[in-house]
Amino acid sequence: MILLLFAQSDTEIRIYNCFEKPVYLPDNEDLSNKLDSLEIVKFDECSDSKVVNDLLTIFSRIGVDCGLLWSPNYEFHKQVSTKRRLDKFLVNCLKSTACTLEQRGLEGNSEIIHALLMRSLFVLFLEDRGAAKEAGLYERVEKGATSYFDILKSPEATYRLFRELEKHFNGNIFPIIENEENLVTPKHLDLIHRCFIDGDLSDQPKLLEEWRLI
């Protein structure tokens, strides 16, 4: 994932925090205010030698990789919270989605909820690696489908896909549970979709309609 964004002009360099989750900004809101809150540091032609040295030391590739950014010897670590890293955010989204699925008709079916989420993670991993497309997996179960999110629009297509996976991996990848297909509804699959698009299970406006977590 991208940790930092460097914006460079002829006279300055600004470094922004990419750990924060994107937010929806109404058209009439001042973008500069939000950018200011994400700015970690600014270097310009008037910066003293210590500030320039920080740029060369802390924000170099080696400096970031070895953890200087999070060293208590510098103040910058206070502006970057690892709690909002994308991987941690995804884990929180999975937990939230599991709770919501249980509240919306799958109460007492934690095994089904777990299987739905883990299968989805696995399918999206295959998609990201290009394996799903290479195998023609989606087109085979639903004509015209090009992504897992196309498949999730239909419970029938979703379970055709799950059966394909079960067959291909000899039942070793989260096999379909007895009566699962009768319990899972389009509303449940929509929650799965929203979990992996942006993690937002509310009906609030979104910054990007198809901003994927993975």
Summarize the structure.
The protein is mainly α. The chain has eleven helices and three strands; from the N terminus they run ββαβαααααααααα.
Percent of residues in helices? 40-55%
Trace the largest sheet across and list its strands: 1-2-3
Oligomer: single chain
Counting helices, strands and paired strands, the structural category is mainly alpha
Quick tags:
3 strands; mainly alpha; 214 residues; 48% helix; three-stranded antiparallel beta sheet; elongated; single chain
Written description of the protein model:
- The chain is mainly alpha-helical and 214 residues long.
- It has 2 domains: 4-81, no CATH class; 86-197.
- Helices cover 48% and strands 8% of the residues.
- The protein has helices spanning 31-38, 49-57, 61-65, 86-103, 110-128, 131-134, 137-141, 148-151, 155-168, 180-183, 186-197; strands at residues 4-8, 12-17, 39-44.
- It has a 3-stranded antiparallel β-sheet with strand order 1-2-3.
